Amino acid sequence: MPYEYAAWLDTIELGEERLYTLRYTLIGGDTDTSVAYRIQLFAKSSTSVDTLVEYLAAGDSLHGEYVFVDMPVSLGPAAFSTSVQPFSPDGE
Fold first, then answer.
1. Angle at 91 between CA 90 and CA 92, to 5 degrees
2. Can you tell me the distance from the alpha carbon of 42 to that of 31, in angstroms, rounded to the nearest whole number?
3. What are the tens digits of pLDDT across the range 36-59?
4. Distance between CA atoms of 73 and 66, rounded to whole angstroms?
5. Is 46 helix (H, G, I), strand (E, B) or coil?
6. What is the pLDDT of residue 1?
7. Fold of 3-86
């Protein structure tokens, strides 16, 4: 596999609101690559979906955080899913 990844759900307080946040680590493989990192958060009947494009140099680690600004903790317990796919701006 050209890269590895891990993610965990956390919360963050912004102003008076507590929001869900996804913290993630992407680790590059043997070659430089760009990846599309798709994230989804589910809480009650609400869903938030986004795709992040990240560049990974060979062997480098990237640590990031995504704040779900439309998903307050007050919605209740949440679950997430993630996936990573190679990305080419040319569609190749």
1. 90
2. 34
3. 999 999 999 999 999 999 999 999
4. 15
5. strand
6. 55
7. Immunoglobulin-like (2.60.40)
